[in-house]
Amino acid sequence: MALVTDAHGYTLVADEVADTLGRHGMNVRPITPGWTVTAPSRILSYLGGPSFDAYVPRNFARFRSPELDVTLYPNGLMLRGFSRQAAFAHGLLVEALTDAPAYQTFDPAAQDIERQIRGVWAAFGQNPAAHAGSVVLDSRLDEIAQEIRSLPVSYDEWQIVYRQALQLDRALRGHPQLLEARTSSNPYMQSPEKEAAMSNGATRSLSLRELLGEITGKVTLLARKEVELAAAKGLVVAAVIAILGVNMLLVAAAFGLAVYLPAWLAAVLIGAVLVVIAGILGYVSWMRRVTQPLAATRKTLREDAQWAKERLA
User: Fold this and answer.
1) Which of 20, 82, 168, 211 could form a disulfide bond with 206, CB atoms 3.0-4.6 angstroms apart?
2) What is the pLDDT of residues 235-270, one digit of tens each?
3) How far is Cα of residue 103 from the mean position of the Cα atoms in its chain?
């Protein structure tokens, strides 16, 4: 599932993921992520420098239980496990993380709607009992709904913000969220005794066709995840090898020039060329920067005014 965070919000989201799953009987425990999880972001952070520090967390979060394997990336949350348990956990998390410091969409227009919805959630969360049925917050939700009606995004992005607006409407009416209200009764996560009973004899009640379908589904899921993992490892290895290859080409160029020049002068010449190229690219990028962000400023002022109005609700 899409879940875009920054370095600060990442830890808060990770804690909410573990807490939400724990409340619903999925007793996940933290484990150390493998290098395939951390390596791509580490490479980006190394190459990007300080510009990536605000987006790449220092420590990655991964949780595991007998039913689920959960990994939180800076731009998504990956759930692996049996289809029914993973589907239920997916529903729980998208519901619980609506007011968390993370975006469940990628389109900037959809993320703007999410930001506005979170602003109303923040005002409501200061005193839910007093703000239930607030005319000001209801009016603000109506304004957001008007923007959703004309939101120029794909249906996948649109239905996410539509669902978040419905969740907010339910909270403003004083009702708990649908899945959260049923914490005590989880139809998919079973006690150890029930799991043992299923393993020992409950599967005997399945027909041969149902049993084959269940086995086929599990094998297909496992094969797909193994392919995805192999592809991720291959991309990381390819990136590392490509960087090493470029370095070797530069060394070879220096050796080639050493036939005509002193070795140290050849190395300095190649380094100078690279510095000049970097300087040109940096200069072009700097000249293209936004120097008069009037639209962004107006948008920020409008959001600040909305925030103040919500605080006074």
Assistant:
1) 211
2) 778 888 888 888 888 888 888 888 888 888 888 888
3) 7
The amino acid sitting at 279 is G
Whether residues 237 and 92 fall in one domain: no
Q: Torsion angle of alpha carbons 250, 253, 254, 256, nearest 10°?
A: 160
Amino acid present at 105: T
pLDDT, tens only, 190-222: 444 444 443 444 444 455 555 566 566 655 656
Question: Which amino acid belongs to residue 185?
Answer: S
Q: Which residue is listed with tokens 């948008």?
A: 299
Residues ≥6 apart with Cβ < 8 Å to 11: 57, 61
Domain range for 227 is 208-257
pTM of the entire predicted model: 0.57
Number of domains in the chain: 2
- Asked if 25 and 65 count as a contact pair (C-beta separation under 8 A), the reply is no
